[in-house]
Amino acid sequence: MFTHYLKIAFRNMRKYRTQSLTGIFALAFGLACFVPALYWLRYETSYDSFYPGAENIYRIYLYEKQSGKLNELVSRRQCRIHCRCTGSDDANAFC
Question: What are phi and psi of 70, to 5 degrees?
Answer without folding.
Answer: -100, 120
